[in-house]
Amino acid sequence: MSATPTPTRDLLMFVVFAAAVLTMPMWLAPIGAGYPDLLQKFAIYGLFATGFNLLFGLTGYLSFGHAAFLGVGSYTAVWTFKLLGMNPIPAAIMAIAASGIFAVAIGFVSLRRSGIYFSILTLAFAQMSYNLAYSVLTPITNGETGLRVLRSDPRLFDAAGQGDGPLVSTLFGIEMSGYPGFYFCAVLLIIGFFIAQRIFRSPFGTMLRAVKSNQNRMNYTGLNPRPYTLAAFVISGMYAGLAGALLCITDPLAGAERMQWTASGEVVLMTILGGMGTLLGPILGAGLIKYFENIFSAFNEQTLHRIFGFLPDFLETPVVAITSLFVGEGWQLTLGVLFMLIVIFLPGGIMEGFSRIGRMFRRSSGAKGSHQTAPAE
């Protein structure tokens, strides 16, 4: 039997999660993932997946268009840099606001339908957004070249706007690159996790679960589910917009490729892989996919020969030949196999696996306890 959520348990989960995120450079270093660029991706895409899970995990509405909000947040952040200065706080706030407004417009139309029709509508909106950014709105987005901050930009409140240093976002004189950039993203991930946790435990979260379980029954009782689903859609879009802004805060460049359908599909995989409807699952799924993308994709035959060098030559060569199919350019094959196995054997994702292990240990400890307290005959 799973543990019932209580304020104490939630506080303990939050504290452990915050400590784990802030210490990632230490405990991820042994597996080669302790460098800043990858840590930033862990935090940013963890935030993206957390927001997506508020919609998909709680209401069951599967959006294939969340990359549109990621792109809107990115473009808004870069334009804020260009007009106001390189401070990341206004860029993040403006990105959240712009993506929220955009989500209201898309959600108002898309949520008139449910199921596969909703998914297709969101996909259509995302592809329209991508095409607009790529070719139609080039004065705003700079098309396929991408939008970047230039020295000729106004940057009205940037005291060092005309300096000779690199054009990177700066907070209190600290450049948001490397480990400082990671910790900025990490703090926002922790805040985003806390908000998601509060939503999960709130009456609003209960209403969203009711939408997922039986929307028709809600209609029969006189409750209109659309305001709740629209609110969840907008909140989820704002999370995505903030993630897009963080991508530009750590690297001030926005491109239309962030709006492609593949980016929307990626966050779906992250959520399902980790465990939809759970708090930690989407973050674990995001971390796993980004680890595969950045670590496994870097393996080559030379690396594999180093790893399997302890084998005899007649074994080393075929082992390297077979393994090379699953790493390097073939890393997606490994991810696909892993995803297939999890969907077949753990439909609830990685978190279901943890739950099963926990139940197994509880049963084992319970059996030992009952054996020890049994009366002697």
Give an overview of the whole structure.
This is Amino acid/amide ABC transporter membrane protein 2, HAAT family. This protein has 377 residues and is mainly alpha-helical. It folds into 2 domains: 7-284, ABC transporter involved in vitamin B12 uptake, BtuC (Orthogonal Bundle), CATH 1.10.3470; 295-372, no CATH class. It is 69% helix and 2% strand. The chain is built from 17 helices and 4 strands. The protein has a two-stranded antiparallel sheet with strand order 1-4. Strands 2-3 form a two-stranded antiparallel ribbon. A hairpin with a 2-residue loop joins β2 (170-171) and β3 (174-175). The longest helix has 25 residues, at 226-250. The protein is globular, with a radius of gyration of 23 Å. The relative contact order is 0.15.
CATH architecture of the largest domain: Orthogonal Bundle
Estimate the global geometry from the Cα principal axes: globular
For the terminal residues, how far apart are their CA atoms?
A: 31 Å
Report the order of strands and helices: HHHHHHHEEEHHHHEHHHHHH
Question: How many E-type strands?
Answer: 4
Please compute the radius of gyration using only Cα atoms.
Answer: 23 Å
Name of the CATH class of the largest domain: Mainly Alpha
Our count of helices gives 17
**How much strand?**
under 5%
The mean pLDDT is 89
**Integer tally of domains:** 2
CATH topology of the largest domain: ABC transporter involved in vitamin B12 uptake, BtuC
Poorly predicted residue ranges: none
**Biggest β-sheet: count, sense, barrel?**
2 strands, antiparallel
**Strands of the biggest beta sheet: in what spatial order?**
1-4
Roughly what percent helix?
55-70%
Q: Indicate the structural class.
A: mainly alpha
Membrane topology: Multi-pass membrane protein
Subcellular location: Cell membrane
GO molecular function, one term: branched-chain amino acid transmembrane transporter activity
Keywords: Cell membrane, Membrane, Transmembrane, Transmembrane helix
